[in-house]
Specification:
With about 140 residues, the protein is mainly alpha-helical. It has one domain. Helix content is about 45%, strand content about 5%. It has four helices and two strands. The relative contact order is 0.17.
Length: about 140
């Protein structure tokens, strides 16, 4: 008997299509229905989906979004600031006027999509708190 991974059944017995985390998470949409929103404000996760009622209490991306931003987004911004200083040697006001907006854009803008992707990935892979098996 083949197991079908393209659909998910919730506690009420309703069948939902299995959506990819990248499709839903990066757009901030519910990982189960793809219609509702994950976020209540910029980085605050809603208690549940307003469309399908999915409880988001499982969602705990912790420091994941910040780590991804530091690893992949801060590096280009900091490299820009360093190379700008070395090759142009601008006055401090110009350095701040150009470097700070670039650093803010590279760090703040990707936080919500990355957090949404991590929440959707947790739902997709049924991530949960680790449990130990009882001794036999």
């Amino acid at each position: 008997m083949a197991v079908e991974y393209s659909k998910q059944i919730d506690a009420t017995g309703k069948c939902w299509p299995r959506l990819e985390p990248v499709q839903t998470g990066l757009r901030g949409k519910c990982p189960r229905c793809g219609q509702g929103h994950i976020f209540q404000s910029f980085l605050k996760i809603r208690p549940s989906c307003e469309v399908c009622g999915l409880d988001y209490s499982y969602a705990d991306p912790a420091d994941g979004p910040a780590i991804f931003v530091q690893l992949f987004a801060c590096v280009p911004g900091v490299l820009f600031a360093i190379f700008f200083e070395i090759f142009a040697a601008p006055p401090m006001w110009l350095h701040l006027a150009l470097s700070l907006p670039i650093l803010l854009a590279f760090t703040v803008v990707p936080l919500q999509p990355i957090k949404g992707w991590l929440v959707a990935s947790q739902f997709y892979h049924k991530a949960g708190e680790g449990r130990l098996r009882p001794k036999e």
